Amino acid sequence: MAVASDVPKDSFRLSMLIYDTRYRSITIQVFVLILFALFVAWLLNNTAENLATRGKEFNFGFLWQRAGYDIGQQLIPYTNDSNHFRALLVGLVNTLVVAIIGCVLATVIGVVVGVLRLSNNWLIGRLMTVYVEMFRNVPLLLWILLSYVILSETTPQPRDFRITDEMAAAGEAPAASMILWDTVAVTNRGTNIPSPLFDRGLGSLDLGFLSVNLTALAYILVIGGSIWVNSRIIAAARARQEATGDRPVTWWKTLAVLFGPVIALSVGLGLHMEVPALTGFNFQGGILVAHSFTALVIALALYTAAFIAEIVRAGILAISRGQSEAAFALGLRPGRTMNLIILPQALRVIIPPLISQYLNLTKNTSLGIAVSYLDLRGTLGGITLNQTGRELECMLLMMLIYLTISLIISAVMNFYNSSVQIKAR
Amino acid sequence: MAPINFVRNEMLAPSAPPVREAGAVKWLRENLFSGVFNTILTLVGIYVIYSIIVAALPWWLNSVWNAGSLSECREIVAAQAGEGATGACWAMIRERWHQFIFGFYPSELYWRPVLAFGLLVAALAPVLFGGQKRNLTMILAVVAAFLLVTLWMAGAPLVVFVLSMAVVLGMIAVAQAGSGKLLWFTALYPALCFWLLWGGSIWLPVVAMLGFVVLGVAYLALVGRTSPMTAAGVGVVLALAWWFILDKPLTEALFAALPWGIEAVASDQFGGFLLAITIGVTAIGFSLPIGILLALGRQSDMLIVKTLCVGFIEFIRGVPLITLLFTASLLLQYFLPPGTNFDIILRVIILVTLFAAAYLAEVIRGGLAALPSGQYEAADALGLDYWRAQRLIILPQALKISIPSIVSTFIGLFKDTTLVAFVGLMDPLKGVTQIVRADINWKGIYWEPYIFVGAIFFVICFGMSRYSMHLERKLKTDHR
Amino acid sequence: MKKSVFLGVVAATTMVAGVASAQATLETVKARGELICGSNTGLTGFGAPDASGNWVGFDVDLCRAIAAAVFGDPTKVKFVPTTGETRFTALQSGEVDVLIRNSTWTLSRDTELALDFVAVNYYDGQGFMVKSDLGVSSAKELDGATVCIQTGTTTELNLADFFKQNNISYQPVTVADDSEAQRQYLAGACDAYTTDASGLAASRATMPDAANHVILPEIISKEPLGPVVRHGDSNWGDIVRWTYFALLIAEEKGITKANVEEVATSTADEEVKRLLGLSGDMGAKIGLDNAAFKNAIASVGNYGEIFAANIGEGTAINLARGLNALWTQGGLQYAPPFR
After folding, report:
1. CB B428 within 8 A of CB B97
2. For the purposes of burial, counting CB atoms within 10 Å of the CB of B335, is it exposed (0-12), middle (13-18) or buried (19 or more)?
3. At B2, is the pLDDT very low, low, confident or very high (cuts 50, 70, 90)?
4. Which of A333, B172, C64, C89 has its CA 20 to 30 A from that of C264?
5. Subunits adjacent to chain B (3 or more Cβ pairs under 8 Å)
6. CA dist list (Å): A182 to A157, A281, C332
7. Is B337 touching C (CB cutoff 8 A)?
8. Minimum distance, in Å, between the CA of residue B426 and any CA atom of chain A
C-alpha cells in the first residue's frame, strides 16, 4: 500500500528553514521572539541606566510612607497620616464608584434615549437626535468641564440657606432651601444627603491592612439571603405553575421576604438618618457628594449614553419588522411588544458593543483630572507621584491597575454575553 | 306634474375633512399628542426647550464683540442691558481666535498649515473616491476654491498661490485620465505635509522619502531571485540602514550644497486646532500600517506572533489614553537610551499612534472577520501565497468594509487629542483656554472659549460622521 | 511612506536637540543656539503668552536674562509649558535646561529628585483669602470651612499640616489651576482659597469686587520659589544663580535697563565695573562672555524693574515688594559680593 511515507525523505538542510513552509513559520516565530526579547532587554537596560544617572532606584517602598495630603471624598477611612498605599486604595474606590454609577446611569439613559429616538413623537425624536449628535461629536473633556461649571454656578451657596435673626423677624424665607422634605441640600459645593447612623452598630473588624465594617457586612448578608430565599419562592411557584397550570399568589411572600429581614435588622441596629444641617460655614452631618464627583458622573453618563443610544437603536432596527408585526398580530400592545419581543432579541446585538462602551467609560473616569476629582489617577498618578517623584513606579502601577479593571470588566461582560447569545446547536 | 327627479346631476363639493383629521392639527395629533404618554413627553420636551431658551437667550442677545478686556465687556453689557444682565463676551474670541486655531504658529506663515490641510483633502480624495471621476473632480475643485480663498486670507506669497493652484488643477487634469496616478501624490503627501508644517531644509523629507525608494528598488531587484519575504526583509534592512546611517549626513551635505528650504517652525509653536489635527492625522496615518500588521498578526496561526499582538492590543486598549500621554511625558525617556531627547509633541504622537494602532487593529480585524471564508478559500485555491492573498484579495475588501469604522476611530481620536493639555501641550480646549485666562484682561472668562471650541469640534466631527455614514451606505455592495 | 514623517521629525529634532545630558548643559545650550526654559502653563504675572504668542511675566524675564547672558540675545529662549506633574521630569530628562516656574525649594526636591535650587527669585508664603462678609479674621477660625486648593503642589501638604496643628477640620476642594480656583472661590464653592500669597494678591487684584475680599494675616508656610537646574552640573547652576544675582546687584547699584550703557562709561565703582565686564573676568570664570551680565541687565532690566513691570505696584497684580525688597530696604533679597 502506497502511503504518504513514500515521499522521498530529504535530509534536513539549513535553507529549508526559510524555503520550506513546514519550517518557515517556526523560523519566523523564533526570529520574532529573539527580536522581542532583545527589544525588552534594550528597554530594561535603558531604564536601569537612566535610573542610575538620575540617582533613583526602582522600588515600591514609598507606598508605605506617610501621604500627608487630604482627600475630599473618602469611602474608606483615610487621614493625612495614612500611607500612600491607603491613598491609592481611596483613589481606586473613587474610580470604581464613578465607573459603576456611570455605567448604570449611562445604560438607563442610553436605552431610554435609544427607544425614544424611534418614537413617533416628532418633537421628542428630534430632541433626542440633537442630544445624541451633540454629545457624540464634542470631546468628553468639554462636557466634564461644562457640567462642573453649570453645577457650581447655578446652585446656591450654603450661606443662602441661612436664616438670620433679621430675616426671621421679618418673616422672610432664605434665598435657598433644602429639598426632599428638608433632607437634601444642594449647594454649589456639592450635594449633602442624609447618612445612615446606627445606635447599636456592630463596629468593624480590623484585618490589619483593611477594616471590614460589620454593619455593612450584616446588611449585605441579609439582603443577599432575602434575594436568595425570594428566588427559591419564585422557582417553587413556577414549578407549581408548570405542574398544575395555575400560579400561586406570591407577591406578599416576596414583599415580606425582601423587606422584612432588612427592616428587622434596621430596627435592631437602631437605624436613623442623620440629616445635614447648616452649622458654621457648611452643612454638617450627612454625606457630602462633591460636585466634582457629580459632574464627572453626569458628563460620563450622558456622553456614554449617547453612544449607547445609537447602539440600542441599531439593535432594535436590526430586528426584522416581522417580529413586531407578529407580536401585534398576537394582540400585544406596543409597550409589551418592546419588552417581550424586541428588546430580548435586540440584546444579543447590543451587548458586544455595550461592553466596549463600559470599558470606555471606565477608562474615561481618568478624565476626573479635569475637575480634580481624586480618583486613582488623582491620588496615585497625581499627588503621590508629585510628592514622591516616583513617576516610573506610580505610572506602571496605575497602568497595571487600570488594565486589571478593564480585563475584569471584559471577562465578566463576555461571560454574560455568552449566556444570552443563542446557543448554536 | 313633472316627475321629481331624484337623481343628482351635479356633485356637491366634498366637505372639508374634520378639523382633527387635516392639516397642522392632524400632524400635531399624530406626531405630538397621539396618546397620554406622548402628550406628556411632548410637554416635557417643550418645557426643556423653553427653559434652555429662557436661560441662554438673553446671554446670547447681549453679546459683546468689541472690547479689550472682560471687565470692559461687563461694563458694556451693563450699559446696554442694565445692571445685573449677563452677556457673552465674544470680544475675547475676536482677539484670540488665531491662538485657538493655530496656537503660536507665526502669523505670517498661516498659509502653510492652511495649504497642508487643503492638500490633505486632495491627497485623501483618490483613496476615498477611487474610480469615480466625477466625485474626484468635484472634491478637487472644492479644494481649489478653498485654497483660493484661505490662501488669499492668510496672505500667502504669490508664488505659493500659483504653485498650489497648479498642483490642484494638475491633479484635476490627471484625474480625467485615470485616478490611479493620483495615488502617487497621496504617497508623496506625508513628506510634503511635514515640510510645509515644520519647514526647514527641503532635503530632510526628500532624503527620508528616498529610503522608501531604496526599499522598493531592493525588493524589486531581489524578488525574482529569492522569496518575496526575504526580498522584503533585505529591503527593510537596507532602508533602515539608509535612515539611520546615511540619512543625516546626506541631508546635511545636500543642504550645504543646495541650501533650499523655508523658514523652520519649531513644534512648540504648534497649538490649538492645528495641534489637534496634526496629532490626529499623523497618528491615524502611521497607525494604519501598524494596525493592519497587528490585525493580521492577531489572526495568524503562529502562536508567538499571535500572543505578542494580542498582548499589545489588549494592553493598549485596557489603559486610559491619559496614562499613555503621561507615559509619553514622564516615562518614555526612561525607556530610551540615556541622552536621547526629542520634543514632547513627537513623543505624544508616538504614543497616540500606538494607541490608535491598537484600536485600528480591532477595526480591521472586524473587517477581516466580515469577509466570507470563501474569499480566503478562493485565494488559497488560486495558489496565492499568504502575502499575495492578503494584498490582492483579502485586504482590499477588508479595508473597504472597515473605512466607516476607521473614520469613527479617527473622530474618537480627534476628540481625544484634547487630553494632551494634561501634559502641558496647547490643545484648543484646555491648553489655549488656560493661557487666555492667564491673561489679566480675560481672567474669569468661562463659557465663551468652551462654546467656541466645542462648536468647531462639533462641525468637524459631525461632518465626518455624516460622511462616514454616507460612505457606509455607498460601500455596501452586498444586497441583503 | 507615512514613516518618513516620523523619521524626518526624529532626524530634525535630534539635530536640533542634540544629545542633552551627556555633555555640560552650557555646551548643549550653546550648540543648540537657544535656551529651553520650563515655564508655567499660564499663571498671571509670572508667565503666560500674550495675544501675539510672546511669553511675558516675572519668571519669564529671568529666563530671558539667562538667555541674554549666554547668547547676548534675550530672544534666544524657548518656553516649554509644564504642568505640576510634568515639570521636574522635564528637567531631569533634559527636556528643559532650567525650570523657572514657581517651584518651592524643599529638602526632598533638592535631594531625592536630584535637582538643585540655585536661587530664590520670589519669597512667598502660603496664605488664605476669604470674602470679607464671612466675618473671619484669622485662619484659625476656619474650622469646618471648605478650602479650595490647587493639586500637585506643596500647598496641599502645608494645608493638611496647618489644620492638623491647630486641631481644626476642613473640607478640601481640589482644583486644577489658578483660574479654576478663582472661579470656584468667587462662586462661593469654597469659603477660603489657599495658595501662595502672591497668587492670592494677583487673584484679588483682578476681581471685580476686590474690596470684598481679604487675605488673612496667617502665612502658614515658607515658599521660596526659584529657578531649578539638574543636580551635578554646577557650572550651569552657577550661571543661572549669578545671572540672578547680577540682576539683584544691578538694582542695589541703581543700574537699570535704560542707564546701563551710561553707567558702563561713567562708573567708578569697582564692583559695577566687574559686573558690567569692564574689569576682571567674572563672565569668563563661569564660561560666559565678560559682557554677559551687562547683556542680561540691558535686556530685561534689574530685579526691581522686572518686579515692577510684571507684578509690582502699578500693574494689575499690584504686589508689594515685602520680603522681596532688597536687604538694604529690609527685605530678603541679598546677593553675595560680585568678586
Report:
1. no
2. middle
3. low
4. C64
5. A, C
6. 16, 18, 55
7. no
8. 14
Chain B CB contacts of C207 below 8 Å: 444
- Within 8 A of C208 by CB-CB distance, chain B residues are 71, 74
C323 Cβ contact list (under 8 Å, min separation 6): C123, C124, C125, C331, C332
- Report pTM: 0.85
Cβ contact C40:C101 at 8 Å: yes
Q: What are the backbone angles phi and psi of residue C84, rounded to the nearest 5°?
A: -55, -35
A209 or A1, greater pLDDT: A209
CA of B23: how far to CAs of A358, A392, B14, B19, in Å?
46, 70, 16, 8
DSSP state of A247: P
Per-residue buried b or exposed e for C263-284, using 16+ beta carbons within 10 Å of the residue's own CB:
bbeebeeebbbbbbbbebebbe
Residue A313 at interface with chain C, using a CB cutoff of 8 Å: no
What would the grid cell of residue B153 be? Answer: 486670507
Question: Distance (Å) from the C-alpha of residue B50 to the closest C-alpha of chain C?
Answer: 26
Cβ pairs bridging B and C (under 8 Å): 173
Domains of chain B: 35-94 (no CATH), 265-480 (1.10.3720.10)
Residue B412 C-alpha cell reads as 474618537
Q: In the prediction, which pLDDT does C5 show?
A: 40
Q: How far apart are the first and last CA of chain A?
A: 40
Cell numbers linked to B232: 522584503
| Alpha carbon of residue A246 to chain centroid | 41
Phi, psi of B156 (to 5 degrees): -70, 150
- Tens-digit pLDDT profile for residues A250-266: 788 888 888 888 888 88
Contact A123 B450 (CB under 8 A): no
B8-46 burial by CB neighbour count: b if 16+ within 10 A, else e? Answer: eeeeeeeeeeeeeeeeeeeeeeebbbeeeebeebbeebe
Q: Is A416 in contact with A351 (CB distance < 8 Å)?
A: yes
Q: What's the mean per-residue pLDDT of chain C?
A: 84
Chain B interface mutation, best of C99, C179, C318, highest count of B Cβ atoms under 10 Å: C179
Q: Which amino acid is at A13?
A: R
Q: Which residues contact B3 (CB under 8 A, 6 or more apart)?
A: none
- Count of Cβ atoms closer than 10 Å to residue A37 Cβ: 10
In this predicted model, what pLDDT tens digit does every residue of A52-61 receive, in sequence order?
A: 887 778 888 8
**Can you tell me the distance from the alpha carbon of C121 to that of B41, in angstroms, rounded to the nearest whole number?**
63
Cell of C174: 481640589
B191 and C20 within 8 Å at the Cβ level: the answer is no
- What confidence tens digit (pLDDT) does each residue in B196-225 have? 888 888 888 888 888 888 888 888 888 777
Residues of chain B found within 8 Å of residue A149, distances taken between Cβ atoms: 446-447, 450
Domains and CATH numbers, chain C: 21-122+225-329 (3.40.190.10), 126-221 (3.40.190.10)
The interface predicted TM-score of the complex, written ipTM, equals 0.86
CATH 3.30.1490.20, domain A84-194+275-420, yes or no: no
In chain A, residues with a C-beta closer than 8 Å to the C-beta of C161 are: 68
Contact C20 B444 (CB under 8 A): no
